[in-house]
Amino acid sequence: MFYSTKRVLVTGGAGFIGSAVIRYIIEHTQDHVINIDKLTYAANLNSLAMASSSERYIFEQVDICNRQALDRVFQQYHPDAVIHLAAESHVDSSITSPIAFIESNIIGTFTLLEASRNYWNNLSDENKDKFRFIHVSTDEVYGDLGSTKSFFTEVTPYSPSSPYSASKASSDHLVKAWYRTYGLPTIITHSTNNYGPYQHTEKLIPSVIFKALAGKPISIYGNGLQIRDWIYVEDNVKAIYSVLKKGKIGETYNIGANSEYTNLDTVQIICSMMDELIPKHPNGIKRYQDLIQFISDRPGHDYRYAIDSSKIQKQLNWKPQEKFESGLRKTIEWYLNNTGVIG
Ligand code: NAD
Fold it and tell me: Which domain CATH number covers 124?
């Protein structure tokens, strides 16, 4: 069934992926968006400048742990769907201070599921059938592929390593239980590491760009041989939107772009692209690579993530468009031209 949406409630829409979802919906569809976001340090309202001028966009500063506020939002805006992205998302912060991850990712998802269920229960049969709850999750719930050659599929058992991935795994289990027990029409997506415009500078790719620009040391955990599978954020957004439109309720879809690189390779590629783009180096260095330093490994660091996305490719006819090196170059150029709007 091709399901036509009108009002989409996006949680965490002032974050990196959430803002890209909203920009996509406003630019490429006729849907209306209600964005609820607590506006933590990770939010950046500059990323929504284009949406803010649209009559089809509304923003409300709301914490998804606040049930009363959520009930009011559902009653006021009558959404046809929820795309749930609000979360604490930085693995290192989850290691030093896990409490916010338990609150927003687990209690927050629980509270949002309950508010959604209450709202959904009171819809007409026709609107109940049309309602969707899309939960945006991560491949990190599957844990570590180690040195095997295998890939995460939708049936890979959960084995999270960090407080972040454990909190996301918990939220996935709640979403599955709300589908199985109450029939709430949920769908889960698991994507690999995203990159692109407006990602917070705490994350690998933007942090390397800014450290290189400032001539500061670029730290790499351990030997840097950990493998990550990268997807350009706009490819993930198109996948999430096609899951909303065409995904089967109760299902999970893995989203990836077959772009496996070691962290060291990723950092070296960024450094050599920057050598080309900004040949005037800071602090007397000759190449940005000279700034690389190796530091003690992150505790519990996963060695390899890699996604098999054949299910969404076959069933929903989605395919990633962007190759890693061209997407990375576009991303670096974007950061170099937009230093003033980064959070
Ligand atoms: P982000 O940290 O950039 O943004 C998260 C947003 O959620 C922020 O705007 C923040 O203010 C908001 N938020 C946090 N707690 C909230 C709360 N209690 N109530 C309301 N809003 C709250 O994160 P992101 O990278 O855009 O990730 C979005 C989602 O996608 C997350 O659920 C994350 O787990 C998932 N994901 C991210 C990646 C990635 O590579 N970035 C990969 C796979 C899945």
Answer: 3.40.50.720
Does residue 27 belong to any structural domain of this protein?
yes
Q: Which domain holds residue 108?
A: 7-200+230-258+304-322
Structure tokens of 75?
């009653």
Cα end-to-end span (Å), the chain: 40
Mean pLDDT of the chain: 96
**Phi, psi (degrees; rounded to nearest 5) at 194:** -95, 155
Residue 215 domain flag: no
CA of 89 to the centre of ligand 1 (A): 5
Give percent above pLDDT 70 in the chain.
99
Q: Number of structural domains, the chain?
A: 1
State yes or no: pLDDT of 226 exceeds 70: yes
The reply to whether 247 falls in a domain is yes
Partnered with residue 132 across adjacent β-strands are 81
Contacts of 158 (CB under 8 A, 6+ apart): 141, 142, 143, 169, 172, 173
pLDDT of 76 reads 98
The answer, yes or no, to whether any atom of ligand 1 lies below 6 A from the CB of 91, is no
Ligand 1 neighbour 64 (Cβ under 6 A): yes
Q: Can you give the pLDDT at residue 343?
A: 63
> Which residues participate in catalysis according to the annotation?
139-140, 164
For residue 86, the CA-to-ligand 1 centroid distance in Å is 5
Tell me how far apart the alpha carbons of residues 341 and 330 are, in angstroms, rounded to a whole number.
16
In a domain, 205, yes or no: no
Indicate if ligand 1 lies below 6 Å from the C-beta of 236.
no
The strand pairing partners of 37, in sequence order, are: 61
Q: How far apart are CA 22 and CA 35, in angstroms?
A: 8
Is the whole-model pTM more than 0.90?
Answer: yes
